């Protein structure tokens, strides 16, 4: 099946690939999201031509769009974030790519966009990793960040779902997500709302991130690393950070994470940590947790750790929380034992240092 899928992709050689010297300099310490590999994968969709067609791998080039393209006016756009990891034997592997494919299609459903077959999604990612594997960064802990995305291309100004779309995958060598590389991050409690019930909060769509930019800039201006969003109705329940889910660890060996009620992105790292924490014997509950309770539990010492998680940052300790009503510190303000243990377990599985007993890792050779 994989060979049949692979044979459908046309390959177009890059006329002027980056020289080895320039590439090596770029991947030595690439940071996050600023350096890009030579190639991209593209697949076209046209409802009047049978759906998905013309899968190809070719040079990473600018995108030509009609000024009336639906994405520019009605924001029909979704994306995923995932990584390729280097294994101990120097092969590359993906972590839970079918979960990314399933979430991609869940986002497509909410945004009135066509589903891309999951096996085609995974094959598109595999194709790009294969051709640009030399872009894997040499920095310690580096990875090849992969960004599959889809947007509406039909030139039409009526308010309805488009009939034409483009799916692309690009790659970016990645180092540390947070500039400081700090072992624990500081977050700012925003007065803004990220998502409301019945909205698009559970979809990985650009509009959700656009809505977070002003409060994120506010957090940065106040010296914090990330922004925290509370619920849009009562403005009291903790939901998520600008791009990460949250977990709260207590002194009795229990852990809480906010439930997936349609306003929170269902993180794949979040789901992985739920599995790993329960295997560690923790009682993990998915239930609402208020900002007032968070502050109270931190002050009493009942709360011993808070961790944020996501594909880009993996697992990161939250050490300090601030907002208009004051600030508080979790534990000693640094990473806790469980945060570090779960991070080491997850990273170990992703990089092949710890046996994968869940079937999460897909080796690409």
From TrEMBL:
CDD domains per UniProt: BCAT_beta_family
GO molecular function terms noted in the UniProt entry: branched-chain-amino-acid transaminase activity
Named cofactor requirement(s): pyridoxal 5'-phosphate
Enzyme's top EC category: transferase
UniProt keywords, alphabetically: Amino-acid biosynthesis, Aminotransferase, Branched-chain amino acid biosynthesis, Pyridoxal phosphate, Transferase
Domain of life: Bacteria
Pfam families in the record: Aminotran_4
Pathway: Amino-acid biosynthesis; L-leucine biosynthesis; L-leucine from 3-methyl-2-oxobutanoate: step 4/4; Amino-acid biosynthesis; L-isoleucine biosynthesis; L-isoleucine from 2-oxobutanoate: step 4/4; Amino-acid biosynthesis; L-valine biosynthesis; L-valine from pyruvate: step 4/4
Enzyme Commission designation: 2.6.1.42
GO biological process: isoleucine biosynthetic process; L-leucine biosynthetic process; L-valine biosynthetic process
Residues bearing PTM N6-(pyridoxal phosphate)lysine: 204
The reaction(s) this protein catalyses: L-valine + 2-oxoglutarate = 3-methyl-2-oxobutanoate + L-glutamate; L-isoleucine + 2-oxoglutarate = (S)-3-methyl-2-oxopentanoate + L-glutamate; L-leucine + 2-oxoglutarate = 4-methyl-2-oxopentanoate + L-glutamate
Family in the record: Belongs to the class-IV pyridoxal-phosphate-dependent aminotransferase family.
Record's function text: Acts on leucine, isoleucine and valine.
Protein's UniProt name: Branched-chain-amino-acid aminotransferase
């Amino acid at each position: 099946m994989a060979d049949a899928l692979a044979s459908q992709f046309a390959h177009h050689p890059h006329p002027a690939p980056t020289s080895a010297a320039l590439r090596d300099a770029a991947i030595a310490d690439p940071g996050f999201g600023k350096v890009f590999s030579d190639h991209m994968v593209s697949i076209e969709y046209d409802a009047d031509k049978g759906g998905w067609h013309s899968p190809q791998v070719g040079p990473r080039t600018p995108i030509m769009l009609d000024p009336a393209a639906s994405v520019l006016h009605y924001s029909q756009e979704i994306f995923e974030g995932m990584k390729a990891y280097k294994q101990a034997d120097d092969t590359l592997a993906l972590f839970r790519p079918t979960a990314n494919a399933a979430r991609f299609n869940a986002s497509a459903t909410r945004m009135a966009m066509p589903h891309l077959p999951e096996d085609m999604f995974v094959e598109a990612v595999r194709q790009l990793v294969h051709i640009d594997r030399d872009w894997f960064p040499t920095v310690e802990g580096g990875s090849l960040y992969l960004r599959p995305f889809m947007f509406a291309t039909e030139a039409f100004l009526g308010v309805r779902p488009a009939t034409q779309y483009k799916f692309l995958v690009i790659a970016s060598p990645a180092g540390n997500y947070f500039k400081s590389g700090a072992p624990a991050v500081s977050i700012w409690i925003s007065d803004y709302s990220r998502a409301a019930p019945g909205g698009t909060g559970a979809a990985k769509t650009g509009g959700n991130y656009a809505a977070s930019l002003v409060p994120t800039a506010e957090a940065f201006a106040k010296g914090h690393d990330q922004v925290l969003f509370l619920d849009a109705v009562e403005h009291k329940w903790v939901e998520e950070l600008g791009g990460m889910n949250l977990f709260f660890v207590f002194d009795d060996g229990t852990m809480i994470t906010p439930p997936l009620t349609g306003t929170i992105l269902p993180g794949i790292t979040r789901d992985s940590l739920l599995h790993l924490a329960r295997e560690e014997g923790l009682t993990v509950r998915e239930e609402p947790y208020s900002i007032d309770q968070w502050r109270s539990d931190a002050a009493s010492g009942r709360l011993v750790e808070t961790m944020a998680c996501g594909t880009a940052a993996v697992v990161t300790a939250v050490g300090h929380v601030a907002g208009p009503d004051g600030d508080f510190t979790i534990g000693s303000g640094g990473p806790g034992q469980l945060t570090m243990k779960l991070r080491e377990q997850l990273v170990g599985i992703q990089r092949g240092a710890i046996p994968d007993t869940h079937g999460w890792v897909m080796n690409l050779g």
